[in-house]
Design goal:
The complex is a heterodimer of chains A (about 425) and B (about 220). By secondary structure, chain A is mainly alpha-helical. Chain A is built from 16 helices and four strands. Chain A folds into two domains: about 250 residues, Cytochrome Bc1 Complex, Chain C (Up-down Bundle); about 110 residues, no CATH class. In chain A, α11 packs across α15. Chain A is globular. Chain B has two domains: about 80 residues, no CATH class; about 140 residues, Rieske Iron-sulfur Protein. Chain B contains five helices and nine strands. Classes of the chains: A mainly alpha (about 425), B alpha+beta (about 220).
Chain lengths: ~425, ~220
């Protein structure tokens, strides 16, 4: 669907007309990312990050496919094949570094994309489905990134696989058999490596499929905007092309500058040197941490150190291990419920004074702290900080947000996007 | 000097003059109505003369720059497919041929392809030299295909020039074909004692790789 004033695709030449009548693919593109898609005229640069995430996925798929031409998933050969790519394959170092840092940049842009959604209330009606699909993509990304990290079969790869699959062993009764099913053995080995490679190759295409649904769902109500005020008429929009193709193109240029700067000049900045040691199932690295994009969740996992039970009786209801795992998964799963936890009808954080305070002085410091603590060894002070931050994370979403939505008195909203942009009310009635 | 300046400025004026107000008018129009269309970008700007517009320059520059970038990125994506350093590192081998008796031949492997090293008997050398080179499909003498003073050492790729099968005749007991050299069983190409094509579909003689005797008994191939 689109707005009634959307420009219509008019094929010009005979070939275009012939194609349009048989397979209207150019029409689809025109209506999706061309002049046929009206977009709010006031989008800021935070609205670039969806497109950037799409580009990051394409970078990952393209570099990944060529890396798979040289990689082999064998416990004896995987590490060497990665080194072979680095040293022998033409431009192999570039392709691998681009893929390695591409994963990090994919998460950077997706985290900014999620941040945009959280602050501007992009998850609210009528865009709940877009948000749900987005959280799904995020989960798929995490699984893909984890399995990709296992493939070089270095020390961090191996012990990452050991720890992550260990989460499943926390489940009562079926946990350990489930873990052995996932690994195809008692510890990560050939079976696990092979299936991780297979799935790591598959998942990006699943992600691409869910992204299509994500964009489809987006095009039903159209993009939100920094005021959160719905589009009232044609004067509130501009065609996607050329306005946002140009703006996204500019943002893409900036993104690529950062991406190639890290890829060429600090390719291992975001990685761990331990992963350049071949996997050794008999020796765990002294300080084992996941990649930076998993640190907040890792901090939540480590925050649970005491079994939950009835005091003074010794009866344990939930073990600390299980609680940590549940909390870690719960911290992501609760995002699925966000559209119904935040009941305020005002979307944009700009017009929500109380929400904004908790957002900037509660949620953001809490996430920074979790990321920081996640990378620290489990010493008492870091554990206590993780516990405080993890507690705030859940309190923020489950208690503060619903209460704030009820008691907050939002600032007056502009009557329309155009009014917010031009600073004066419309004289003529909206179309 | 002053007159030159004057003519310059007046010469510029007619171009600039309509542009300024037109742009202002566009902006003013934008502010009041609020609606912006693709026309504002100058896609169909009626205020100006048709032909090349200033905006065309930035369009072409942008697209060209992106095109050059895309081509630059395509290079590593394609070049990764060509032979890697470890493959190229095996591009030359050294073979000790001391143990090959007259009339014997061995198969070895060079760049993952079979190589035949054959110690020709005097009779075979004579037979090869007897042939009228002008009547051959791929005219070459035995001397062209061997090193001076070492005419008995015939070194060729064991790859039929027709479609790449390995011809027979190098190992003891194998069929040597009608001309006593090699015979390719796939499509029936016969090679003589200088491994020249004599009969069958192969277009050229068996390829002689680049080689050199680095001592009396050691050959470096490649």
């Amino acid at each position: 669907m689109s707005f009634p004033w959307a420009q219509e695709y008019k094929p010009q030449g005979t070939v275009s007309k012939w194609v349009d009548e048989r397979l209207p693919l150019p029409r689809l593109v025109y209506n999706a990312v061309g002049a046929g898609y009206p977009v709010p005229r006031n989008l800021n640069y935070f609205w670039n990050f969806g497109v950037l995430a799409g580009v990051a996925l394409v970078i990952q798929i393209v570099t990944g496919i060529v890396l798979a031409m040289h990689y082999y998933a064998s416990v004896d050969g995987a590490f060497n094949s990665v080194e072979h790519i680095m040293r022998d394959v033409n431009a192999g170092w570039f392709l691998r570094y681009a893929h390695m840092n591409g994963a990090s940049f994919f998460f950077i842009v997706v985290y900014i994309h999620i941040f945009r959604g959280l602050f501007y209330g992009s998850y609210k009606a009528p865009r709940e489905m877009i948000w749900l699909l987005g959280v799904t993509i995020f989960l798929l990304m995490m699984a893909t990134a984890f399995m990709g990290y296992v493939l070089p079969w270095g020390q961090m790869s191996f012990w990452g696989a050991q720890v992550i699959t260990g989460f499943f062993s926390a489940i009562p009764l079926v946990g350990e058999p489930l873990r052995q099913l996932l690994l195809g053995g008692f510890a990560p080995d050939q079976a696990a490596l092979n299936r991780f490679f297979s799935l790591h190759y598959l998942m990006p295409f699943v992600i691409a499929g869910v992204i299509i649904l994500h964009i489809w769902a987006l095009h039903i109500p159209g993009s939100s905007n920094p005021t959160g005020v719905s589009i009232k008429g044609e004067q509130d929009t501009v065609p996607f092309h050329p306005y946002y193709t140009a703006k996204d193109g500019f943002g893409l240029g900036i993104f690529l500058i950062f991406f190639v700067a890290v890829t060429f000049f600090a390719p291992n900045m975001l990685g761990h040197p331990d992963n350049y040691i071949p996997a050794n199932p008999l020796s765990t690295p002294a300080h084992i941490v996941p990649e930076w994009y998993f640190l907040p969740f890792y901090a939540i996992l480590k925050a649970f150190t005491v079994d939950f039970g009835i005091p003074f009786t010794g009866v344990i209801i939930i073990e600390a291990k299980l609680m940590g795992v549940l909390a870690m998964f719960g911290s992501i799963l609760l995002l699925f419920f966000l559209p119904w936890l935040d009941t305020s009808p005002v979307r944009s954080g700009h017009y929500r004074p109380l929400f904004r305070k908790f957002f900037w002085f509660g949620l953001i410091p809490c996430l920074v702290l979790l990321t920081y603590c996640g990378g620290k060894p489990p010493y008492t002070q870091w554990v206590i900080l993780s516990q405080i931050a993890a507690a705030y994370y859940f309190i923020h979403f489950l208690i503060i947000l619903p209460i704030v939505s009820r008691i907050e008195r939002p600032l007056p909203l502009p009557n329309s996007i155009t009014e917010a942009v031009t600073g004066k009310p419309l004289e003529t009635a909206a179309a | 000097m002053s007159t030159v300046k004057k003519t310059k400025s007046t010469g510029k004026k007619p171009v600039k003059a309509p542009k300024g107000p037109a742009a202002v008018a566009l902006n003013a129009d934008k502010a009041t109505s609020g609606g912006i269309t693709a026309d504002d970008l100058g896609v169909e700007n009626n205020d100006q003369a048709p032909g090349v517009r200033r905006r065309d320059f930035i369009h072409i520059a942008t697209v060209s720059f992106a095109g050059v970038g895309a081509a630059a990125v395509a290079m590593p994506l394609v070049s990764q497919m060509s032979a890697s350093a470890d493959v190229l590192a095996l591009a030359s081998i050294e073979v000790d041929v001391a143990a090959i008796q007259t009339g014997q031949s061995i198969k070895t492997s060079w760049r993952k392809q079979p190589v035949f090293i054959r110690n020709l008997t005097p009779a075979e050398v004579e037979e090869a030299n007897k042939v009228d080179v002008g009547g051959l499909r791929d005219p070459q003498t035995l001397a062209d295909r061997t090193k001076p003073g070492k005419e008995n050492w015939l070194i060729t790729l064991g790859v039929c020039t027709h479609l790449g099968c390995v011809p027979l005749g190098a190992a003891a007991g194998e069929v040597k074909g009608e001309y006593g050299g090699y015979f390719c069983p796939c499509h029936g190409s016969h090679y003589d004692t200088a491994a020249r094509i004599r009969k069958g579909p192969a277009p050229t003689n068996l390829v002689v790789p680049e080689f050199a005797f680095i001592s009396d008994t050691v050959v470096k191939i490649g």
